[in-house]
Design a protein that fits this description.
The protein is an all-alpha fold. It is built from eleven helices and two strands.
């Protein structure tokens, strides 16, 4: 339990800040929906339903972007960072293996990510009686699973970079560049080989459903069977990156 408590204390400020940002953004979107809807309607398609509005603001808009950045931030830290700060000797002196040290840190990060993924559903539902915004719980919960699965790949990328390089912001910058490169490469292949478009997707598209077969663009809602194959695929990528981070940490000579 001490190890879990230590990992929680190290990541708690980042998690609480992230929860505050996402919670506040969802609350503002729900409570001030009339002026926000009017402003967005002048630049996008009319948001004449609650489903279309919440999707545009939360699941395709600012809140989704904030969640993606927080997924990167939650993956930062690790023994290399502690080595730079001069605290790694204390951590390595604990009567636990490096495998357990890294595994617990990863588990805490993924649990925090899960909490952030489901937070929009909680805030929107809690404020519904006051805001008179009604959004199907089935949609929010399905989006939460998609956010957790896709967000875990961003977390995994940052987690892996943190096990390979120290520095305050190095891992974050490298992970973000890798994500940007993935997005650009996907778009490039789509343009050059349109026949492959059905098999290509980006992390943000998995999260929002945009361009995906399980999303109805007209209704702006998730439809049909839940995409378990895609969820399993992105989760496998995350697992691979976290496992690689564990292997790299075991090989470092501190």
């Amino acid at each position: 339990m001490m190890l879990w408590h230590k990992a929680w204390l190290e990541s708690r400020p980042r998690f609480l800040l992230g929860a505050a940002v996402i919670g506040a953004a969802c609350a503002v979107a729900a409570l001030f929906h009339d002026p926000i809807r009017a402003a967005l309607a002048t630049r996008t398609a009319p948001l004449d339903t609650d489903v279309a509005y919440i999707y545009r603001v939360v699941y395709q808009g600012f809140v989704r972007t904030a969640f993606m950045m927080l997924a990167f931030i939650l993956g930062l830290g690790g023994l290399l960072r502690e080595h730079d700060l001069g605290t790694s000797a204390f951590t390595l002196a604990l009567p636990v293996t490096r495998l357990r040290l890294v595994a617990v840190r990863a588990a805490i990060g993924l649990l925090e990510l899960a909490a952030l993924a489901v937070l929009p559903a909680i805030v929107i539902a809690a404020l519904s009686p006051v805001s008179h915004i009604h959004y199907p719980a089935s949609q929010t919960l399905r989006f939460a699973v998609l956010w957790l699965a896709a967000g875990s790949t961003l977390f995994g990328a940052s987690f892996l970079c943190s096990s390979l390089m120290g520095g305050e912001y190095t891992a974050f910058v490298v992970a973000w560049i890798a994500f940007f490169g993935h997005t650009i490469t996907t778009q490039y292949i789509r343009i050059r080989h349109p026949e492959l478009s059905a098999y290509l997707f980006t992390v943000q598209e998995v999260m929002s459903g945009f361009r995906m077969a399980y999303f109805d663009a007209a209704a702006r809602a998730l439809v049909g069977p839940f995409p378990l194959t895609i969820v399993a695929a992105v989760s496998a990528v995350s697992t691979l990156m976290i496992s690689t981070a564990v292997a790299c940490t075991n090989r470092w000579d501190f």
